[in-house]
Amino acid sequence: QYPNGAWPQQFREPPDSATHPIKRADYPATWSRTFPNQTYKGHYTFNDNAMVDMMNVLFEAQRIYGDDRYRRAAEKTGGVLLLAQMPEPQPGWAQQYNADMAPAWARKFEPASVGGGEAQSVMFALIQLYRMTGDKKYLEPIPRALAYYKRSQRPDGKLARFYELKTNKPLYFTKDYQLTYSDADMPTHYGFVVSSRLGKIEREYEDALKTPKDQLDPPRKKDDYKMSSDLMKRARAAIDIMDSRGAWVEMGKLRYHGSDDKTREIIDTRTVVKNILTLAQFISASKQPSP
Which H helix or E strand runs over 173? Predict the structure, then answer.
């Protein structure tokens, strides 16, 4: 975790605080309209909701293990959500920032810009932080952010994923990855136009404001899994197909390694997640009193 509470796109080594000052987001003096082809793995990354998901995992870890270090790290992440809000005229959030807290390029179709996608998840996260902590500082950015994104909606009511810095013009890419103001020739592998959840964000914001403080964070209902022959069967099957390392290996191909790749045995994370959930449910059901 960086000194300002952020997380990198990929982890390489503990961050150097001297090269990552704690500062508010701002516009760079200049920014490239062409892909600079520079590494982005150390950027502060909201893309794919990575930072918000990290925060949620930390809150969950504190709930499960009772260790306040996790909650402190989660609230530290909340701090960077506040720092990362851009100043006027675009008080939203970028997908990623460099160490100077300026919006930065990532991949060749992710320009330095103010974002319309992950920024909505940031607003939901701020409301959640208020509910978790009761601290109204987390709600303070939302009214001006909502106003900004409302006036930035496209004629179809949706949002562009990227808005040009300062001009606020929606940015898109052509199929050969040229930055453009037109959405007529976009690649299909990426969502350059995103749904607006602004109405739901506004409702949740107003509901949070109206909720009495002692009811902001009600106790979570415990998952209550019941033992059944089906659950026992699925748990047994998940264990039986593990290899000696405890891995689930299956026949398949690696998606992005080309048709000439000879790999035929893979670990598919979808299978891993399904089996882990099955085993966790089995453990939970095993702890319930027998009928």
Answer: strand 170-173
